[in-house]
Design a protein that fits this description.
A hairpin with a 5-residue loop joins strand 11 (415-417) and strand 12 (423-424). The chain has a domain at 31-112 and 359-395: Uridine Diphospho-n-acetylenolpyruvylglucosamine Reductase, domain 2 (2-Layer Sandwich). The protein is α+β, with helices and mostly antiparallel strands and 502 residues long. 39% of the residues are buried. The strands form five sheets. It has a five-stranded mixed β-sheet. Helix 7 crosses helix 8 (174-191), helix 9 packs antiparallel against helix 10 (225-253) and helix 10 packs across helix 12 (275-303). It is globular, with a radius of gyration of 26 Å. It has helices at 3-31, 50-54, 63-73, 92-100, 112-118, 128-141, 144-163, 174-191, 198-214, 225-253, 263-270, 275-303, 308-327, 335-339, 342-355, 386-390, 431-437, 451-468, and strands spanning 57-58, 76-81, 84-89, 106-108, 170-173, 363-365, 369-371, 374-376, 381-384, 401-402, 415-417, 423-424, 469-473, 480-481, 485-486, 492-497. The structure holds protoporphyrin IX containing FE. Residues 108, 123, 135, 138, 142, 285, 288-289, 292-293, 296, 357-358, 361, 440-442, 446, 448-450, 453-454 line the site of protoporphyrin IX containing FE.
Amino acid sequence: MSDSHLTFFSLSSSILALLLIFIFIFKRKQTKPKLNLPPGKMGWPFLGETIGYLKPYSATTIGEFMDQHIARYGKIYKSKLFGEPAIVSADAGLNRFILQNEGKLFECSYPRSIGGILGKWSMLVLVGDMHRDMRAISLNFLSHGRLRTHLLKEVENHTLLVLNSWKHNSTFSAQDEAKRFTFNLMAKHIMSLDPGNVETEKLKEEYVTFMKGVVSAPLNLPGTAYRRALKSRSTILKFIEGKMTERVRKMEEENESLEEDDLLGWVLKHSNLSTEQILDLVLSLLFAGHETSSVAIALAIYFLPGCPQAMEQLREEHSEIARTKKQAGEVELTWDDYKRMEFTQCVVNETLRLGNVVRYLHRKALKDVRYKGYDIPCGWKVLPVIAAVHLDPSLFDQPQQFNPWRWQINGRRGSCSSSNGSSSTINANNNNTTNNLFLPFGGGPRLCAGSELAKLEMAVFIHHLVLNYQWELADSDQPYVYPFVDFPKGLPITVQNHSYLS
Ligand code: HEM
């Protein structure tokens, strides 16, 4: 065969092959049922709408991006976020459905950068059996029994350590103080580190650098916050590993009995986790347990001065508890005292509803799912936005108002605006429904393992704060979503010592 014949033959067979591929794709498209995706747009190639979605906004709102998308497309819409096609849900029913079907229809799926920094054994990124095992360890460490017997006392000690250091008429960052409290508490409970020790302070410093990387763009380039955070991560892990080695040696010397009743001791004695797994567990519990509750406490400090009626009712509740204790000759708070902090629980709930420490969760669809006539394709990212439900005016009356009374069965007194101080009507309706819609700690099999500890920390901190101090914002500041909630100026406050105990 001549060269020209050969060229002609191979050209025509390539054209035929291409034609067959086109026919095959066309046929497949025709036979595959058309998906009814939610409305929305996919934005730019690769980036999609990520930049608009992540643009900072006030934490007591849902932000311009969400507002506009919900107005245009409804509470369920499609988009392209974090480099992937995504379904965003501001729909209470779908959010609950997603969380309840964890492991069946949906699965936890945080961006790879989170795994890079928190570690591949971090609970936030684990799924399946390994997640179940790590979760069991965390729940044991944060159990109801431990809260009563160990943690209440520790929480009170650490609260007093921070509050007693506040000088009359001084001005400081309330956010930093809240972080000092939650970090010290976690470091003690996880590794028996004492507050103020050189090593605890060093670890805290490293942790600040580490946190800056967790919230930054995941660019592993020289000079970036992410690169610095990766370096801090390895310093922190080396530190924890040193503590582990010390502890193992001590266990061998003292024939298995250990003085320290902390998480590190517990996992070393009772689990089969590898060193790498223990390190990631300790690091991620420090992260989960310290960042979130410190923001929640800072939010309560921010909301309360705007609502004098709530402050007054809190002081009544806590003075009464303190008076009864004094009469009984008791000093430390007991579990019964905590149970008597009923209005405080309303303040805690309202702070979490309006401030939304965790705004949305990362999931992906494990199968093709149909919900309310919409298709959620297998493999797509799914973002249940819990904050959008908490701030939905069709579900919460005047959602921008700080109104702790909405959590009472029979709401009393007025409500206070978080933004302009004007008062409005009481909303105590829909209490049952409201409880179903309120998911500050997520839900389903991944419900926050530390939710009860977080509420305890907030209540005990509020107890001593309102009984001993008056405070006001020293500079205008407000919580922003970056997407982690943060106060740009650190929430500067001026405090006055004032004993409200008669
Ligand atoms: C106000 C404070 C807190 C808030 C708002 C909060 C919120 C959340 C949310 C929404 C999740 C679910 C994440 C998901 O499903 O993807 C979660 C998980 C978790 N939280 Fe919290 N949290 C708080 C405090 C704490 C504390 C004090 C601890 C204690 C160490 C803690 C430990 C955890 C752990 C271990 C998980 C993972 C649970 C799992 O995957 O099974 N959290 N938290």
